[in-house]
């Protein structure tokens, strides 16, 4: 009933969508520096999602740099141990 890994997830057969941006030009967002450990973990998770066909690489002019978000409860619990 529940997925135990990303390969167990199903896929929806939905139509591609288009976000109308009018005449606006894309803008570059700055790269967010990450620790080598965080960067390695993000790359691992991204590769896992690529392998499971959950995400795909983009060559859009509107793409943004990858960022990490942290679970405050996990961070707090780990820092008190």
Task: Describe, in short, the structure shown.
This protein is mostly helical. It is built from 2 helices and no strands. It is flat and about 45 Å long.
Provide tags for this entry.
81 residues, 2 helices, mainly alpha, 30% helix, 0% strand
Radius of gyration equals 17 Å
Record field, number of beta strands: 0
Q: State the distance separating the first and last CA atoms.
A: 34 Å
What is the mean predicted local confidence, pLDDT?
Answer: 79
State the secondary-structure class.
mainly alpha
Specify the number of helices. Answer: 2
Q: Return residue spans where pLDDT drops below 50 for at least 5 consecutive residues.
A: none
In what range is the share of β-strand residues? under 5%
Task: Give a written overview of the molecule.
By secondary structure, this protein is mostly helical. Helices cover 30% and strands 0% of the residues. The chain has two helices and no strands. The chain is flat. The mean pLDDT is 79.
């Amino acid at each position: 009933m529940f997925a135990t890994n990303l390969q167990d997830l199903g896929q929806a057969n939905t139509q591609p969508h288009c976000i109308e941006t009018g005449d606006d030009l894309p803008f570059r967002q700055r790269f967010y520096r990450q620790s080598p450990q965080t960067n390695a973990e993000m790359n691992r998770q991204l590769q896992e999602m690529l392998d499971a066909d959950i995400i795909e690489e983009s060559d859009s002019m509107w793409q943004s740099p990858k960022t990490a978000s942290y679970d405050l409860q996990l961070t707090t619990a780990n820092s008190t141990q």
